[in-house]
Write the structure tokens for this entry.
Amino acid sequence: FPSHDTLLVGQFAANGILGTSSAQLASALSQGITLNILATAQVSTVDTGTAGAGVGSSKVLGVSPAVLTPMMIGQFASQGLLGTMSSALANAIGNAFCIWFLASNQTTTVHSGVGAGVGQGFVTGLNPSAMGNMITGMMAVNGLLGTYSPKLATAIANAIVPHLMSMGTVVTPIAGPPSPTASSGTGSGKVL
């Protein structure tokens, strides 16, 4: 499957964003978003099944460019990013992020109280400020030192983080030793 930065470059081109630094921007966004998610994104579940302890592996679902892109356009406006291409840029970033994330994310979880069953939950642990700082740092590494770079990073993070934490859902099968006794419990884990 294409990498996040490859998807960003393709979405930039499809949305008419053909600037000389678009590849560097794609690289910076991909690195900043990915590193932040891998470092901080967690999963929390509420479980039902049979008594015991188990493990789960699944995917985060529910993210949608139809929801993320308008959030991002609003965040761009709140940061004063009102250029003629701002909506196209938000559309490109939102589309690329959702396609990449839905195709590539995985979750691993451990469950106490339920050895075999199902866990239903959501994404936790992300912070918009931390993601914005990570994106800003990756912009600097990629030579994007403009005065609006931190504002762009903040706008993107302020859209992606709430979107993932409100729309990102997990339904994971729990595998472990089954028991004849029904039980409920909780699970936690990481987004990989």
Summary: The longest strand covers residues 182-191. Residues 122 and 169 are 5 Å apart (CA to CA). The helical segments are 4-14, 22-40, 65-78, 86-104, 128-141, 149-167. The chain is about 50% helix and 25% strand.
